[in-house]
Amino acid sequence: MAKYKRILLKLSGESLMGKQSFGIDPDRLADYARQIKEVHDMGVQIGIVIGGGNIFRGLSGTGKGFDRVKGDQMGMCATVINSLALSSAIGTLGIKTKVMTAIRMEPIGEFYNKWNAIEYMEQDYVCIFSAGTGNPYFTTDTGSSLRGIEIEADVMLKGTRVDGIYTADPEKDPFAKKFKDITYDDIYTRGLKVMDLTATTMCKENDLPIYVFNMDIFGNLKKVIEGEEIGTLVHN
């Protein structure tokens, strides 16, 4: 039994690199596609936002001399490339997909519209939302929050390379302790960096829970959908 009927899955662009230092690792891409198929086969309606950090990150580009607006626009284009790659990988498994863009890019993708997106998901399409919010100065985390709220998702599933939220960075602090669940207010108080503040506040104000888990272990997405407690739930 699926715990959620409709999800917004946020994937990291950096994770798509796999063991590479840049670009898209075909094995990691195929792994993600197979996990998404597992959940789709359970009847879950799926919306996806994927970052572009494996290709270009606007904010880091600013530090190298890029204009911030143009840098962010380059980052938006990077998310479109990743979205097309993921769409292709999912499509090879026999699942219908729609790539929707926050800025007009026909015929690369369909211009995003909430009502069309919901209709597609109800018709068993996996919808991949690219180009962030379409505006500079906003991250793909904020794009995920916005899309998750718009499509009326039951939860935002944030797939990362760690298995939840800790008191400190578990890769740096061996004594860091994992939270089973945590409130948005505690995240603010403790200064934890789950997502950027804009994205976190949007989820809090619209009562969209976030579940943080390790997407890089095959089968974890299905475990989350089945209600297995392998990550951290963020809630009001």
SSE diagram, text form:
Layout: E1 6-11, H1 26-40, E2 45-50, H2 58-62, H3 68-91, E3 97-101, E4 110-111, H4 114-122, E5 126-130, H5 140-150, E6 155-160, E7 181-183, H6 184-190, H7 197-205, E8 210-214, H8 220-225, E9 232-235
Parallel strand pairs: 1-2, 1-6, 2-5, 3-4, 3-5, 6-8, 7-9
Antiparallel strand pairs: 8-9
Description:
The structure is a single chain. It contains eight helices and nine strands. It has one domain: Carbamate kinase, CATH 3.40.1160. Helix 1 packs across helix 3 and helix 5 packs parallel to helix 7. With 236 residues, the protein is of the alpha/beta class. The model has no long low-confidence stretch (mean pLDDT 94).
Task: State the main characteristics.
8 helices, nine-stranded mixed sheet, 236 residues, globular, Carbamate kinase, alpha/beta
Can you summarize this structure?
This protein has 236 residues and is of the alpha/beta class. The chain is built from 8 helices and 9 strands.
